[in-house]
Amino acid sequence: PQQGNVLFGSALDGWAFDLATFARLYQGKLEGVNDSCALLEGLWGDYFYSPRRKAIESGASEKGRKPLFVQLVLDNLWNIYGLVEARDETKLRSISERCGVVQNARDLRHADGRVPVRNLLSGWLPIERSLLGAICSVVPNPTGISEAKAERLLCSRLSDFASYPGETKELKSDIMRCDPASDRLIVFVSKMFPIEQGAMAGAKDTLERLVKNLSLTGDGDAVAGEGEIFLAFARVYSGTLRRGARVFVLGPKYDPRTMADDPDTSANPHLVEVEIDSLFVLMGRQLEPVESVPAGNIIGIGGLQNVVLKTATLSSTRFCPPFVDLPLIATPILRVAVEPRDIQNMPRLVRGLKLLNQADACVEVRVQESGEHVLLTLGEVHLERCIKDLQETYARIELNVSKPIVPFKETIVPFVPTSEENPEEEIAKDREKDKTVTLQTPNRQCTMKLLAVPLPAEVVQLLNENENVLKAYFQHQDTKQSDCPQALLDSIVELRKKLEQILPDSVPYDRIWSFGPKKCGTNLLVNRTDFVHSSVWHDAVVPLNEADQKDPRMPYESAFLNGFQMASLAGPLCDEPMQGVCFIVERWELDMTIGVDVATVASHGPLSGQIMSAVKEGCKKAFQNQPQRLVHPMYSCNITVNSDVLGKLYAVIGRRHGRIQSADLIEGSGQFDVTAVIPVIESFNFATEIRKQT
Fold first, then answer.
1. What is the three-class DSSP state of 375?
2. Where are the domains of the chain?
3. What is the pTM assigned to this prediction?
C-alpha cells in the first residue's frame, strides 16, 4: 500500500483512495509530524500516533493502541456509514460541506439512507480519479519496456534470442519504442471473452457482420443465435492495427527460425492469415467501434473466434515469434466427465465445451481414449460455475455430470516397523529380504534384474521444480538440433550439480538413464550394468565410441526406455502416474546364441516388443516389493473467521483430515486469518459446511 499500488474502496458506492490521499490530507495536522513520507509509511502497519511524544511509533498491538490506519482512515469511514442508520441530516450536511461536496435537501432526505452517504463519498473520494491516478503512477509506460523484457516477450528463458533471424531481432526495438508508425505490427491476445449482443447495440453493422461470419463457419447455432459473441482481449505492442488489415495469427508452436529452411509457409499449420473484422474500444460493459488502434492501447478484436483458442500473437511479419504464454494461475486438478442427457445433443455439447475452453483461461477440456469428454477445473466452486455456463450459455442442453474424479499418484516409502517392542529386529529382517525382480522375455533371449527404491523428498521437489527445464531439454534432443540454447544448458548443469549433492549414494547421478513419465517426471531409471548408453547430461549429438555402438543391446535401448516410461505413467495400484521412485537396473543380458525361428516370432512378437513389456511388468513388480502409498493432492485455503467460532472451524478441518498451517490475529479486529491444507478428495461441500458451522 505504501507504494501506491493498492486501492481501498467500494465500487458499489463509487469511492476509492490510496494511502497517499490521506497522507496529503493529514499533512501538517498532526503535531510533530510534518513529513508526508513519514506519515505515509506510518499509515500502514503496526504504527500509532503518540500525542505525548508527538511522533509516530511502532508497537500499536503490543501497547493496546489503535493503528494509525484505523485511527485516521477507517474510523472516519465507519462514522460516515454509521449515519445511514442514524439518519442524521445535520451531521451529513456538515460533513459534506467540510469535504467540499454539495448535497441538496432532496438527497439528504432520500428514503434510501445510503444515497446521501454515496453522494458524499463518491464526491469526496471519486473512484475514477483514484483508479486512473494509480494507473498513471504505477502501471509501466508502454514506451518504457526494457530490453530484457522485450527479449522475454519474444522468447522464453530456455531459448536463445541470438539464434533467431535478423528480422526477428529487429522486432525487439519496435516493442521497446512502441511506435504507432512502425510498419511491423505486433499484437498479443491474452484471452477470449464472451459479450452479449446487446453490448453492441451501437454497432449494428458490425454485429450483423460477426453473426454472418459465425454462421458461415457452422458455429452460429451455438453462439450468435444464442445471444453471445466472442471477442479477443488484446494489446498493440507495435504499429497500428486497422480494421480490414490482413495479419498472421501465430500458433504457440510456430518458430520463425524455420523460415530460413522453408520460406513457403502456406502449408504451415501454426501460421494462419486472417482479416481483422472489427475493432472496439472497451468502455466498461459497452463497446465503441473504431477504425484503427495505435501501439500502446488495449482493444477488443472481433472475428478471431475460429482461429484463436485462448491466447495468440498477431503480426504483419512472419518473422515474429509467438509471445511466451501467460503463466497459469493454478493447475486444474478436479475433473468430471460430462455427457448430454439426450445423445442427439452431442454436437451441441462439443461446441459448448469448445466455447467454454475459450472463455475460461483456467479450464481444460480433454477427450479420453474411451470417448468421454472430461472437464478439468480448479475446484468445486469453479466446477459448479463451468457446469452452469455449459447448461445455460454455451451448450444450452441438459447434462449428466459424473462424480468428481481426483487424480492420485503412486509412490513407495522406506520401510516403517509396526512393532513397538522390537523395531530394530523388523528393520533388520526387511534389509535381509531380496526385493529385486528378475525377468526374462517370453523367448528367453533377454534377462533383466530390477530394483525399486524411494527417492528423498528433496529430490522429488527439485525434479518437480525443474519439470519444464527437463521437458525443453529432451524436446531439443529429440529434434536433433545442434545449437542448444545456452540458458537451457546452464539450467541443466545447475540441476545436475544439485542432484549430485542430494541424491543418495545408491543412486549415482552420472548413471541416470532416463526420467519419467514423459521424460520429465520425478521418477528415475538408473543403469548399473555394463551397458554404455548416451548420458542424459550430454547433448544428443555427442557420439558413443565404436565398441559401444556394436553392443547387441544398443538397438533395443529405446524399447527398454519405453517400457520404463509406460510403467511410470500407470502404476500397479490404480493406473495412476508414479512419483518419487527410482528403478535401478542391476542386470541386462541379451543371449544372441538362442535361435529365433519364424514360429517364435509369430507367437511372441519381435524382441523389442517383448523387452518393452518385460521392463514394464518388471518395474511394477519391483514397485510392489516396497511399501506402497497413494499420494493425493492438497488444497491450500485461507479462511477469515471470528474468534468465537475458531474452534468450530478447527473441528471441520480436522474431520476432513486437513492440517492447520497458521492462524494469525488480524490487527484492529477480533478475527483470525487461518491458513490450512485439506485433501482435494475431502474438499467437496467444504465451503458450505464451514458456513453452516461458523
1. strand
2. 8-137, 147-218+225-258+266-315, 334-401, 432-630, 632-693
3. 0.69
